[in-house]
Amino acid sequence: MVLIFRRVMQLVGLSLSLLGWVLSCLTTYLPQWKILNLELNEMENWTMGLWQTCVFQEEVGMQCKDFDSFLALPTELRISRILMFLSNGFGILGLLVSGFGLDCLRIGEEQAELKKRLIILGGILLWLSGITALVPVSWVAHITVQEFWDDTVPDIVPRWEFGVALFVGWVAGFSLLLGGFLLNCAAFSTQAPSGHYTVAEMQAQCPHLEAGNRS
């Protein structure tokens, strides 16, 4: 029962981490980190991402323009670019390392201690990925709130608001953190006494892998 529970945690943790990593990559390139709705012209909506600003007009559609200079960007956008790249890098490394440590993987099944260390290392990398994804989206959200409630700006001036990319980034970050947590919980659960698993156990826990070997 302990083996079943550990393997379920590993698969769920890896699945959540994969989802978080995909959403993190999506967040990096989505142009909707901020949105600007013009009350004077409701047919025109502006969006801003880490790489470009876009304007959507009903008659023309969406037109985007890349930022001309990295150094000319606001500080939060420059740092967010770097952190999102780090998040994506930590995420893919964590997925690869954790994948090699799965109990369902027949490779190295007699080296239980090594696989445990791989799972732990992968979980830590996924934690780092989640943190470096949450920091930029939360920072941009904080700056957006500050600017929205800035009393020095006249009320007639349009204010930037939260874009969909921020919410996607929050989901990505928490998915990566939860996935890494489950992987580490699985790694610190009770190990098999012999350090490897019988063929019958592998067939019961990983039927899809066994079917692949037969084919």
From TrEMBL:
Subcellular location: Cell junction, Tight junction; Cell membrane
Protein's UniProt name: Claudin
Keyword Glycoprotein: no
Major subcellular site: other
Signal peptide interval: none
A GO cellular-component term linked to this record: plasma membrane
Role of this protein: Claudins function as major constituents of the tight junction complexes that regulate the permeability of epithelia.
Entries under InterPro entries matching the protein: Claudin, Claudin_CS, PMP22/EMP/MP20/Claudin
Domain of life: Eukaryota
Entry's Gene Ontology molecular function annotations: structural molecule activity
Membrane-spanning residues: 82-106, 118-142, 162-183
Family: Belongs to the claudin family.
Gene3D superfamilies the UniProt entry points to: 1.20.140.150
Membrane topology classification: Multi-pass membrane protein
The keyword Transmembrane is assigned to this record: yes
Keywords in alphabetical order: Cell junction, Cell membrane, Membrane, Tight junction, Transmembrane, Transmembrane helix
